[in-house]
Design brief:
The chain contains ten helices and no strands. It is mainly alpha-helical and 256 residues long. Its main location: membrane. It is a multi-pass membrane protein.
Length: 256
């Protein structure tokens, strides 16, 4: 579970609720079923209009990626590549054939299979760069769906509020019902803004960030494949791959 997502959402709800309670309000009253029905489905459906069907489907499939901790472990991937590099340098590329079938990454499996099959480095690079490009495009489209939903939600919150006010003003002969209708109308605005800046928009941006790690891992693996094919010294190759780590990560060499 990605705590930055879960704690962020729960913390935002808690801080709003505490502020409302301190002013004598009741956060439960903000949860208005009619507003939720008007805002949420309409926002998600409207976002579909400007999104490719493949990316709409992918956006929902990627929700677990948003809420789960990233599965990308560059340290473990570098260690794996260096082990393959050592074996290939010692016993030749063909010695990797049995290992390739056991790899957990389809990207690495495809690239090394091409290498074992005797393809030129340029051919491997051209093929795998296309995979990277398509991966970037796919996750960009999926993340953009949620970002569009975030941009749409406040406007639909305003639409919901206007609809509520129209109905409330029809009850001028009953001030109590009219006041309740106006209060209910403004919950749509709250729902729209909350959905935009706490849910949909942040979800899209988080998916884009996690997609960046997925793509970075693929680029790292491609550099590793190139190094293996060229027969680079494993220590030298490791030093190169460690540069893919962010400044916040410590660079540990397995040769030390």
């Amino acid at each position: 579970m990605d705590l930055t997502v879960v704690l962020g959402i729960l913390g935002a709800i808690a801080s709003i609720s505490i502020g409302d309670l301190m002013e004598g309000g009741n956060p439960v009253h903000v949860v208005h079923i009619t507003s939720l029905i008007i805002i949420m489905p309409t926002t998600l459906l409207a976002a579909m209009v400007s999104t490719d069907a493949e990316h709409v489907k992918g956006a929902y499939k990627a929700v677990p990626i948003i809420f789960k901790k990233s599965q990308v472990d560059l340290h473990a991937r570098i260690k794996q590549i260096i082990e393959l590099s050592t074996m290939a340098r010692r016993d030749g590329l063909l010695s990797l054939e049995a290992k390739v079938a056991q790899l957990d990454s389809e990207f690495l499996k495809q690239g090394l299979s091409m290498a074992v099959d005797g393809n030129e480095v340029d051919t491997i690079v051209e093929t795998m760069e296309l995979v990277i490009e398509e991966t970037e495009h796919y996750y960009h489209g999926c993340a953009h769906y949620w970002i569009i939903a975030g941009e749409t939600s406040p406007v639909l919150g305003l639409v919901g509020a206007v609809l509520g006010l129209i109905l409330a003003l029809q009850k001028l002969d009953n001030p109590a019902e009219m006041a309740a209708g106006i209060a209910g109308a403004f919950t749509a605005t709250v729902t729209g803004i909350f959905s935009a800046y706490v849910l949909f928009g942040p979800m899209g941006n988080k998916l884009a960030k996690k997609a960046h790690h997925i793509v970075k891992e693929q680029k790292l693996m491609l550099e590793g494949i190139i190094g293996i094919v060229h027969g680079d010294n494993p220590r030298t190759l490791e030093a190169k791959l460690l540069n893919f780590l962010s400044p916040a990560e410590e660079k540990h060499s397995q040769f030390n």
